[in-house]
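Margin note from the TA: students keep mixing up input and output lines. Inputs are the sequences; the output is the structure of the whole complex. Example:
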Amino acid sequence: MTAPLLEVNNLTTVFGSGRGPIQALRREPAVSVRAVDDVSFTVARGELVALVGESGSGKTTTAQSLLQMIPVTGGEVLFKGQDVSKVSGRALRALRQHMQVIYQDPYESLDPRYTVRRTLEEPLLIHGIGGSRRERADIVTGALERVGLTPPDLFLDRYPHQMSGGQRQRVSIATALTLEPELLVADEPVSMLDVSVRAGILELLDDLRDSGLGILMITHDLSTAAKYADRIAVMYLGRIVEVGSARDVTRDPRHPYTQALLSVVPTPARAGLKRQVLTGETPNAAHIPSGCRFHPRCPQAEQTCQATDPVLGVVPRGAATHEAACLRLADLVPAAAGGDDTTPV
Amino acid sequence: MSPVLEVEDLTISFRVDDGPSVDAVQGVSFAVNAGERLGLVGESGCGKSTTLFALMGLLPNTAVVGGNVMIDGRNVLREGPEALRAARWSDVAMVFQGAMNAFNPVKTIGWQITEAMEVKGTFTGKAALKRTGDLLELVGIPAERAARFPHEFSGGMRQRAALAMALANDPKVLLADEPTTALDVMVQAQILDLLERLTDELELALVLVTHDLPMVTETCRRAAIMYAGKIVEEGPTETLYRDPRHPYTRLLFEAMPEIGEDRTVASIPGAPPRMDRPIVGCSFAPRCPSAMDVCRADLPDTRDVGARHIAACHLNDPDRVVATQGSVT
């Protein structure tokens, strides 16, 4: 097997190590926020990996760190075998051309004064792609066709305010595609869109995956991840707590956090079943609990969970690719492991 | 038992200078009993929030409102603005979309909840302060947090505080406009749990406005589906899911993936119609995969299609049911 398109090893991002003048005057200790803590995963070509978690779980910071949009504290990010965190300047820009990102809010991510044509041409000019005006125009219309904005002539001279949310998100994706990326990072690509158009955008990402792109999708919506991702990594307080095939993670969840998250996803087919609501909100990454960071909210926590920090391990009686970080993994094996009966359907 | 909230043939149109008026709500009727939860579901612009604003008497002057709104037996719409003002917050209260961001940043949470009572004169002085603490406890916030400022609360806690404020004057009807959008899944579940508990314990009639049909299916026993200013289907949520009788309802369910269900997920093609132009026939016909000639010509009647289940679709016309059954699903 060839090396994966993207390989993230022990990525760690710490913010604000040190203290500001006010904290210094008050003699408060320096605070640091471990937003991403020892995260490892891979994305292969033609694979869609979903990074799932609540606000503050570090999923967006993980994406920004691997794109070198914010400085990385530790670990390595290998894109096509090359460590992104070791390059800078022109070399980084060359690498980045092939790692594109689309954002959550197509109402804010597009320049309101730019026409679709200009929005799509800008990255080409920045990266010096497409020698002539003619060549650039071909790339632009090609990208619009690929995202389903057809005929392109109809959209080229439109401004963002003349388009719907779904169309704007398609423009964002087309803009990323002009540079022929190999990796696409999609940060909550549909959460701002109307329910009726979400599936269309997700199908588009699905098609791009089938055409060979590696896609990292960041989402808080497990049902979207279950439907469209090949693999799912569940994050909690900067750590991946469970990872595996989308089917294993959503039908046979082993980590108590994943189980709780799944239980609160509204599913009409099993309406009336008890939600396993965790009290409190995601704790602050500035104050990570001792031992297993999930123990204060965990319904299964034991004494040991307060002391020992669990690492990812293959789940018993499950798929070899299915891993979870829980000290009680061996005790929490479902009665018929690997079956569908853990999630009542 | 007579319903606490009864909306009958509500119409809302907005006058527009130099143009045709916009008929945002076109004859909406529904009723909610004490302790009952009704979901009002639809895409952006279908008129669901406008309906709630009319019940609160908070529409701008350009709005022309018709029909009847009975709150606890009083026809507040007929009796005029004074009756609406008297009912607002006392009989009917609302949690607005993004309410957690609507607190005054320079006043404590407690001050703002107390003010809601003193303005209405329902509770004053010490009694109001005591009740503020009780209300906060009711929504799961320790009473002593009343002295805190909004920025010291997380989003989920601010949403709880907004609920406490809405309940300040002991309303009988609670209107909630997208109360969980912008909140995380787990916090959303906490708020839904809270709404369920409050409606049960306080015998509140709840109208939950959202675009999230799966969420409504879990929270409410009944739902009304709105499209282009009209209710196109209403019934028990379980029935809407198992046996939808309007294609729009079915497509809304199909638009969202569901864990554990291997089925196709598809967006609904097209966009809702413009409301400033007359619509001939069924407003959903241009987007409907089952549309027939009659749909483009005649407005469908709203019919009983089951127990407490109504739908406005030509597929349910008695003389067509037999012929078109194959294309319903």
